[in-house]
Amino acid sequence: MSKRSINGSDFAAMALLGADYLQRNAEHVNALNVFPVPDGDTGTNMNLTMTSGVRELRSKPSASIGKATEALSKGLLMGARGNSGVILSQLFRGFSRSLAGLEEAGTAQLAAALQHGVDMAYKAVVKPVEGTILTVAKEAAKHAVQYARRTSDVSELMREVHKKAYEALQRTPDLLPVLKQVGVVDSGGQGLVFIYEGFVRSLSETDGNGYQDHYSMPSEAAPPEEVAVPAAKPVIRKQEPLSAQARLTTEAIEFLYDMEFFINRTLSGHTGAFFDESAYKRALGKDGDSILVITEEDIIKVHVHSRKPGDVLNLSLPYGELTDIHILNMREQHRDLLENEHVDVSTADFAAAELLAGQAVQGVPPGQVFEWAPFGIIAVAIGEGIEDIFLENDVDTVLSGGQTMNPSTEDFVKAIEALSAEHIFILPNNGNIILAAEQAAELSERNVTVIPTRTIPQGLAAVLAFKEEETADRNAAWMKNAAEQVLSGQVTKAVRDTSIEGVDIREGDYIGIKEKTIVVSNASLQEACQSLIVSMLESGGDLLTILTGEGAEAAGTATLCEWIAEQYPELELEVQNGGQPLYPYVFAVE
Amino acid sequence: MGKVRIVTDSTADIPAEVRERLGIEMVPLKVIFGQETYLDAVTINSEQFYEKLAQSTALPTTSQPSPLEFAEVYQRLLAEDAESPIISIHLSAALSGTYQSAVIAESMLEEQSDITIIDSKSASFGFGMRVLKAAEMAQAGESKERILDEIKRLDGELKLYFLVDTLEYLQKGGRIGKASALIGSILNIKPILSLDPDGVVLAVDKVRGSKKAMARIVELLKHSFGDEPVAITIAWTHGDDTAMELCELVKNNFNVQEISYTTIGAVIGTHTGPGTSAVFMYRL
Description:
The complex is a heterodimer. By secondary structure, chain A is α+β, with helices and mostly antiparallel strands.
């Protein structure tokens, strides 16, 4: 029996399964990172983005497709993390706008909505790059618009969309040479294909037909997880009959308690314990996922999915008083939704209030009057040393994140709202965070300028160019200019064998990255550093700053400094403890 | 009417031989190391001071000349020639009570006198240059009015920038002024320091590393002077190479007609610390 239209409930089921497919394959998507660096996180970012979207959707169940897609869009927009996450949120933003006001949608309307999403996403990205999630979405949407003329069966249309998206994904290496070199398909595009796959399966279930029976893809284009990916972990795909899928999906929520609370360091007598954010996160990670810890002054926001909420609370108690504690059972939520029962109203309010409640994070009690500062600066950084350097140099808020954890649009919005400043600058300090920051700037009603810093060294150069007494425009221009004057380099360990731009890389080697190019791979950390420095100083420079991170040893650093002093006697050298994870050394040449 | 006499204080950082040649009267400020008090540029010279500073565990302090010490100088000059107008030019009143002492001294005098006391709103050669010009004019027999006009004109003609190794001395001595925001940074930040129109220390800009700092100074000076003919004075603290590097850089980038050198004396040095270098540039 074919389905001629879908309503809000149908769409919710689709989105939920889409999110589920993405979540289960997040690691696979992570492994598609072009650079063999240990922090490939497109899958994590897209998953967290989608999770936020679905959470919002669940909190506002509606039979109207217009309302349902709007809820998803809002959740995605706020939860957007990383470039792919931001693009995903824009795709569904356009999608939902196109369906606004509709109770249900048929093939023509869905196809138009997909196309609208693509248009929106292309507009949002300053320089759209083909061979990415954009291309995958675009080709799928284009095909949908054509195919919708031939069919009025929504399931069939979505199957075509998924098929076309998958085919477009396979062609991404032809469009983006770097993908071909490394032998992967685009990670963001892969994430989208997983979401579409979830859509298709959800529709097939409600058809009463197993998806695979109707799956018409040629065998060589079979399930996307069989794409040759070097060192990618095998993707575990459940092969149970699809009628059982729904139940399984619920049980698949392993870390079932969705927890969110604040640790207030100033309340109660428990302020003694030193809060080591990374150790705390590691502790949460032992039995949890979707971990998010945001420290703002004396208030720590914690989000985690855990099997044992009691353990999480006990772990947190020594650091201060716990406030605004929300614990949701995600399986319960999921069952409710699938059984099409009423979602507990108070729970829905909870989740809906989450976005608003988040704005109470700031340490300023309501009613108190503060004079606003002319400027505020938000920087993204990870590593205690780097955070301190930023905080000592005019930065008001450091959002924890960067190479391993990208802050979401919502994190930025909250940080913006928490600052009592007329004009706010954001230093993303990572190429993959810029879009989320820009999206936050757009969503916020405050004056926000994103200085598109791609590295920590660029961010440091930018804050040093900041002058309190100058205008916002001039500061923005100077900070941007200062960031462009810095050459950034970083050293990390390769996570797989590959060959990129003529450099052969073996897993476990240290790779030196100059700006965006891998210039060296060497089993010795010392030699990798030296080669990278030589390359960075090719066109001169007066000052070399070294930020030491986890994995850098004092003796090794001393040897490196001696070598630099010998090779470059004129060069000024400054070594700082950055404390960043995964990258033993970050270099800046100015 | 007698010849105009010029009085200044030790913080003008004018070398002794120049003072003698031009007949400039200098009232010394004091540097105090624990129990010992030294007269700046009289009982302690720049070299001795930085040696002592390196050995001393506690930071020295400084003090302005007493009104009496000023009065004695004024009285001596008036005794030589009661008709002589006196122009007394001093360290920024925002940085020191020296100017205040001079003003009190004048009010204490019982003799009939014509003394003009000027708050230079500057420090070191930033006003030393004006003292020199005034002295040259006085020697040439120019009138008090013409000399005062010239001092006023020169006020806006000079730019000074200085670099310190650390802001610690400016901070501990309480002279950090508007550069205080830069204190306490982990990064080796080099503030480009100057004095504002009121003679208060201010950080014009901040960069990292001394090479960048020098390049920035050149840029700032270029903005003011372009390729006009200029005179420069380079001031340094004992045993520091940065000033020479700065001097070379400035020489190569400007139409420099005159160069002079001076050391930063004990009193200024107490507040800026070792490793201070300064460039003073003015239009010819």
